[in-house]
């Protein structure tokens, strides 16, 4: 019966070999994501990619060839993502890899890419380790770093007279990093602040009533929120019902992103200082062009931050290949150095220093308008002033 | 003031217990009567929430709100009936716990259907009309809806109590919980009893999903998010006990609230610590009854004796190994990477099958040793600059030692309670790794764990993995045919008789548990060096269940079931995942295989071979 193993394995291998098709007339990019496991985030992201691809290819593609994305689902498992990365690069003929939302999957692909010499543009993962502590020569990241967004909120927080802070963040690596960055920056700007309680609900398993009571008990002046998704919904509802936000400043990391504000609708919190994406309020420039094009391409849908990131991913890759003039890895690596890309957010640069893009963030104050949560008094901030110093970053990156 | 907060916290805990109790009592009832470990119970909870939120948006006012909750329960109950009749009924005669494979298929199908029907965006639950604000109790704000939940729960508990103790249906349910064969012998139509219980259990899950809407909403991850908490409650309360489920829900919910306040970092582990402690003090939960001897591994047809491969088998195996050895000359580098993945999973599944089939010990937490081995290697490489070769050898040893410790606690229990204690330990291990950021990197894991230069080539690593997986599997088979294996099977088939012949049953089981752990650790070490990184999801519950499912899918009463099942599932998934609705298709494929092959793939093929006369009908299994 052991024979079954071999035969099935061989059959699987043969069958998948025969399905591989080589069409040499397109430039292929391997895109790995959790389309099912994280559908709420991955769907808008994929639409952003599709929109940008259409625009790029309508304009003649790159290097005279159409750009093609091969979308593959990894089920949110780092191990599976690594296997798919290998398949995309060696069998599907992809010239580079991109994708992922979950930090751990991004880190797994990055580690593999570094070992095998594949270029990987981490589009959405939040972990700053990707470009700093675990950075490698082959990994680049588009999305604004968590550290920077937390530092922007800390700057706003330091302007008020609040000194007693409570934090609430999901109990995993992203949550801890987000709280650490906020504390570090706020303490630097305002040494007298104290953190009176730190709450760590399990991701997507928040016991919101208990968390709200625990925060109330600590009597903070202000609250720093990192929860998102269903945790955020429950936290906002219990917090509003029990009045924990009354008379308190609240700072919300990513809270203003449509992914999280839209489901809250008319129950969206008011007066929170948040980072997010106020697409509805962008009235001119490339930002507006993108919003219009997106809504025209997908009637009945509004853009999310994921849509923007997906769109910018394609723009980055198209600009990269154009600059490199080739799809060979060494040429692409060289072209990535201080690569400049025109995007709906303005021009961004992939810094040669740490491979992080200079995509910034919108910061504003939440409000409810027409039954929808929106950001008011917002502004777009460039990330450069909020980054750790170049020396600090260079010291963090592993020597290679 | 402090008193006020205390009371308010207590009330929050009690309110949280409501939904948990509903879902858990449903699972407990289903398990008590049908002995099915229904993994899909969380999916029914999710359906209840989605149906509830859809109805609430249509039906207006008080009546609409409460009517929606009741309707959501009824509709979920009917969906449960469909699942029971179409998927589970055909496999009741299969080996015990086999049905969990079918319920796993159901989870996948429901996940994709829910995405198709309701879309990806989270649905915020509407607030209860008339219950939107707070009541001040001793100065502390308490949401009105919380008080409503606290008031409703005792009524449901009472209704269930009345149903179980005062009606004829209840008598049958209780009788079936104690001895279902006897009930059958007395002329009760078991099929309808099972269907009825499934309806009730599913309806309770749906009710739980709908009633929590004002405190949350409906989303696509809620099925898997609640399932572990529900299992914990059922186990602490005692399988099959409604009162137990109630007390355990209250206990867990209240403890959680105080945990959040006084030990905010404890949110992941607390309930598993409680479960482990309860099981160690009261092995059958608070209100559970001791399991009848022989519940596991011996329902249905008795296990066949085993025999090593004959000449034919040896020749075939050699041929196949030769085929695998030739892959690098014929296939692409991806084919090698894919086969390495499959081989590693085969070894992991084989190690589980060793304790499960030969030892009769159903472990729900086997990933602890797989992930434990992987993390041992990764930690040694990251912090001690250990050479890769040494780290690789130390990984299975560390996993074996870990299994030795965990096994010492677990083998005191048997059957489902043993399974649940292994689950508790694996969750403790997982949360330790998940939370200890400074050392394990938490969810961001450990990266850049690569093999030495001489092994870094894909083909070299392929042979490396092939040699170790083959050696591991052959070693396990050898142990099964050695005197130790005989002693282990004796302990499985009749602990008492084995004791009488001088076998130290516990020691034999303990050692087999450690051995299986070590082999799982070997698989984990092969994994970490093939991927170059390790993350906590490799020791999560779902990883343990992956292995469990392939063992049952392949055939629990065979020797090679795990290997065949692993190859089948990995292969099928690698192929199907390219499709848009791959979860739906994979779920249906699993359900289909389960129905046509109720003895597992190997078991059913063997039977088929015997029936067609291709194989001698012999009393041996391979």
What does this structure look like?
- The complex is a heterodimer of chains A (400) and B (622).
- Chain A contains 13 helices and 14 strands.
- With 400 residues, chain A is α/β, with parallel strands linked by helices.
- Chain A has two domains: 22-145 and 287-360, 3-Layer(aba) Sandwich (Rossmann fold), CATH 3.40.50; 147-280 and 361-386, Rossmann fold (3-Layer(aba) Sandwich).
- In chain A, helix 3 (78-90) crosses helix 4.
- The radius of gyration of chain A is 22 Å and the shape is globular.
- Chain B is mainly α and 622 residues long.
- Chain B is 72% helix and 3% strand.
- Chain B has 25 helices and six strands.
- In chain B, a hairpin with a 2-residue loop joins strand 2 (134-137) and strand 3.
- At the A-B interface, helix 1, helix 2, helix 3, helix 4 and helix 6 of A face helix 1, helix 4, strand 1, strand 3 and helix 9 of B.
Descriptive key words:
A: about 400 residues, Rossmann fold, 2 domains, five-stranded parallel sheet, 14 strands, disordered N terminus, B: about 625 residues, mainly alpha, ABC transporter involved in vitamin B12 uptake, BtuC, two-stranded antiparallel ribbon, 25 helices, globular
Ranges of chain A where pLDDT stays below 50 over 5 or more residues in a row are 1-6, 10-23
Largest sheet of chain B: 2 strands, antiparallel
* Count of distinct structural domains of chain A: 2
Into which percentage range does the β-strand content of chain A fall?
15-25%
Report the average pLDDT across residues of chain B.
Answer: 90
CATH class of the largest domain in chain B: Mainly Alpha
Specify Rg of chain A, calculated over alpha carbons.
22 Å
Strand line-up in the sheet with most strands of chain B? 1-4
Tally of alpha and pi helices of chain A: 13
CATH fold category name of the largest domain in chain B: ABC transporter involved in vitamin B12 uptake, BtuC
Helix-and-strand structural type of chain A: alpha/beta
Strand content bin of chain B? under 5%
**Alpha-carbon distance between the termini of chain B?**
69 Å
Structural class of chain B: mainly alpha
Considering DSSP H and I runs of 4 or more, what fraction of the residues of chain B is helical?
over 70%
**CATH architectural category of the largest domain in chain A:** 3-Layer(aba) Sandwich
CATH homologous superfamily (4th level) name of the largest domain in chain A: Response regulator
Assembly state of the chains shown: heterodimer
Number of strands of chain B: 6
């Amino acid at each position: 019966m052991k024979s079954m193993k071999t035969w099935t394995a061989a059959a699987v291998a043969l069958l998948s070999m025969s399905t591989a098709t080589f069409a040499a007339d397109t430039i292929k990019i391997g895109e790995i994501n959790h389309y099912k496991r994280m559908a709420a985030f991955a769907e808008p992201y994929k639409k952003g990619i599709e929109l940008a691809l259409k625009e790029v290819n309508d304009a003649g593609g790159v290097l005279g060839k159409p750009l093609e994305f091969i979308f593959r689902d990894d089920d949110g498992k780092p191990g599976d993502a690594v296997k798919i990365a290998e398949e995309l690069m060696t069998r599907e003929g992809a010239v580079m890899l991109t994708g992922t939302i979950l930090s751990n999957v991004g880190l797994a692909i990055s580690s593999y890419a570094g070992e095998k010499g594949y270029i990987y543009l981490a589009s959405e993962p939040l972990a700053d380790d990707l470009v700093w502590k675990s950075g490698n020569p082959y990994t680049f990241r588009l999305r604004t770093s968590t550290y920077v967004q937390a530092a922007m909120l800390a700057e706003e927080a330091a302007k008020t007279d609040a000194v007693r802070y409570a934090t609430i963040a999901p109990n995993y690596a992203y949550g801890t990093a987000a709280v650490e960055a906020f504390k570090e920056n706020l303490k630097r700007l305002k040494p007298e602040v104290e953190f009176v309680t730190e709450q760590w609900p399990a991701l997507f398993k928040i016991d919101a009533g208990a968390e709200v009571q625990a925060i109330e008990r600590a009597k903070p002046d202000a609250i720093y929120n990192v929860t998102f998704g269903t945790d955020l919904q429950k936290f906002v509802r219990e917090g509003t019902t029990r009045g924990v936000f009354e008379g308190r400043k609240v700072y919300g990391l990513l809270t203003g992103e449509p992914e999280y504000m839209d489901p809250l609708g008319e129950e969206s919190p008011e007066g929170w200082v948040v980072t997010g994406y106020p697409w509805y309020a962008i009235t001119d420039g490339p930002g507006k062009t993108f919003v219009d094009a997106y809504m025209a391409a997908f009637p009945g849908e509004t853009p999310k931050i994921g849509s923007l990131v997906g769109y910018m991913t394609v723009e980055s890759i198209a600009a990269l290949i154009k600059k490199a003039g080739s799809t060979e890895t060494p040429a692409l690596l060289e072209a990535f150095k201080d690569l400049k890309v025109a995007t709906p957010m303005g021009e961004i640069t992939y810094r040669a220093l740490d491979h992080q893009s200079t995509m910034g963030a919108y910061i504003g104050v939440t409000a409810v308008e027409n039954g929808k949560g929106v950001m008011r008094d917002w502004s777009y901030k460039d990330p450069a002033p909020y980054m750790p110093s170049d020396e600090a970053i260079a010291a963090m990156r592993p020597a290679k | 003031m402090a008193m006020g907060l205390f009371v308010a916290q207590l009330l929050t805990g009690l309110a949280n217990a409501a939904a948990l109790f509903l879902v858990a009592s449903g699972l407990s009832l289903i398990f008590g009567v049908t002995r099915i470990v229904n993994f899909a119970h969380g999916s029914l909870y999710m359906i209840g929430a989605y149906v509830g939120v859809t109805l609430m948006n249509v039906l207006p006012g008080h009546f609409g709100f409460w009517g929606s909750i009741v309707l959501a329960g009824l509709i979920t109950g009917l969906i449960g009936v469909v699942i029971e009749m179409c998927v589970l009924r055909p496999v009741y005669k299969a080996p015990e716990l086999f049905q969990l494979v079918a319920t796993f298929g159901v989870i996948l199908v429901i996940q994709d259907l829910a995405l198709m029907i309701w879309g990806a965006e989270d649905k915020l639950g509407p607030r209860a009309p008339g219950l939107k604000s707070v009541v001040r109790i001793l100065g502390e704000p308490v949401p009105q809806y919380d008080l409503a939940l606290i008031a409703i729960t005792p009524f449901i508990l009472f209704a269930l109590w009345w149903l179980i103790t005062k009606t004829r249906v209840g008598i049958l349910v209780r009788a079936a919980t104690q001895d279902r064969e006897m009930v059958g012998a007395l002329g009760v139509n078991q099929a309808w009893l099972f269907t009825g219980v499934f309806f009730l259990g599913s309806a309770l899950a749906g009710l739980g999903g709908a009633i929590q809407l004002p405190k949350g909403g409906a989303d696509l991850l809620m099925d898997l998010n609640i399932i572990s908490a529900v299992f914990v409650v059922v186990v602490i309360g005692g399988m099959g006990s409604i009162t137990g489920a109630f007390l355990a829900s209250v206990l867990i919910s209240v403890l959680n609230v105080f945990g959040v306040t006084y030990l905010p970092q404890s949110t992941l582990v607390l309930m598993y610590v409680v479960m482990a402690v309860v099981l160690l003090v009261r092995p059958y939960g608070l209100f559970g009854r001791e399991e009848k001897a022989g519940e596991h591994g011996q329902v249905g047809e008795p296990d066949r004796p085993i025999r090593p491969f004959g000449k034919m088998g040896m020749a075939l195996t050699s041929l196949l190994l030769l085929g695998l050895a030739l892959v690098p000359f014929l296939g692409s580098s991806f084919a090698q990477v894919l086969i390495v993945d499959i081989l590693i999973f085969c070894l992991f599944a084989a190690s589980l099958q060793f304790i499960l089939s030969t030892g009769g010990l159903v472990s729900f937490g086997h990933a602890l040793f797989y992930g434990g081995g992987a993390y041992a290697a990764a930690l040694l490489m990251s912090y001690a600059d250990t050479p890769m070769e040494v780290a690789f050898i130390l990984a299975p040893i560390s996993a074996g030692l870990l299994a030795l410790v965990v096994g010492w606690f677990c083998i005191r229990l048997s059957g489902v309670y043993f399974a649940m204690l292994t689950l508790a330990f694996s969750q403790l291990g997982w949360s330790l790794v998940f939370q200890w950021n400074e050392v394990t990197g938490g969810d961001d894991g450990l990266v850049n764990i690569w093999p030495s230069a001489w092994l870094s080539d894909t083909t070299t690593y392929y042979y490396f993995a092939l040699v170790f997986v083959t050696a591991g599997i052959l070693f396990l088979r050898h142990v099964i045919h050695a005197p130790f294996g005989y002693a282990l099977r004796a302990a499985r088939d009749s602990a008492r008789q084995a004791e009488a012949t001088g076998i130290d049953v516990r020691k034999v089981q303990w050692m087999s548990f450690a051995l299986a752990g070590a082999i799982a650790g070997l698989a984990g070490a092969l994994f970490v060096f093939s991927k170059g990184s390790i993350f906590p999801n490799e020791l999560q519950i779902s990883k343990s269940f992956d292995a469990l499912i392939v063992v049952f899918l392949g055939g629990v009463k065979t020797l090679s079931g795990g290997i065949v099942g692993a190859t089948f599932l990995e292969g099928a998934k690698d192929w199907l995942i390219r499709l848009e609705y791959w979860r739906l298709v994979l779920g249906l494929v699993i359900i289909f295989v389960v129905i046509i092959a109720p003895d597992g793939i190997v078991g059913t093929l063997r039977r088929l071979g015997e029936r067609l006369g291709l194989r001698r009908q012999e009393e041996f299994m391979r």
